[in-house]
Design brief:
About 25% of the residues lie in helices and about 20% in strands. It has about 110 residues and is an alpha+beta fold. Helix 1 crosses helix 2 (about 80-95). The longest helix is centred in the first third of the chain and has 14 residues, at about 30-40.
């Protein structure tokens, strides 16, 4: 058994303005991370054996972002607003059901 049932990492990478690649931080990732932490606590599913919400540096999918990833399943999500985060919390982190409409496709082999 894993230490956590679900572990969600939010890309909070910040690049300099004008950088060649986009960054998740410029797309509201910090607010989404904080909202997710609060929602998980409010649902009573935070902690050992349940859900852990963590910051991450660049997860190298910023062009598809903002992004987060849920382990142990390895499900990658993008989101537009905080209601998307609520849906990820309720569906995936509480009920174990992947939110297909927010799921990112698996990267191509060798990408």
């Amino acid at each position: 058994m894993s230490y956590y049932q679900h572990h969600i990492f939010f890309c909070l990478n910040q690049r300099d303005p004008g950088a060649a690649r986009p960054c998740c931080a410029a797309r509201g990732a910090e607010a989404a991370f904080e909202h997710c932490k609060a929602a998980v606590k409010a649902q009573g599913v935070a902690g050992v054996g349940q859900v852990r919400v963590n910051r991450a540096g660049c997860l190298d999918r910023c062009e598809e972002g903002p992004v987060c990833v849920v382990y142990p399943e390895g499900v990658w999500y993008t989101y537009v607003d905080l209601s998307d985060i609520d849906e990820i919390v309720q569906s995936h982190l509480v009920r174990g059901e992947v939110v297909e409409r927010l799921r990112l496709p698996e990267p191509a082999e060798g990408a």
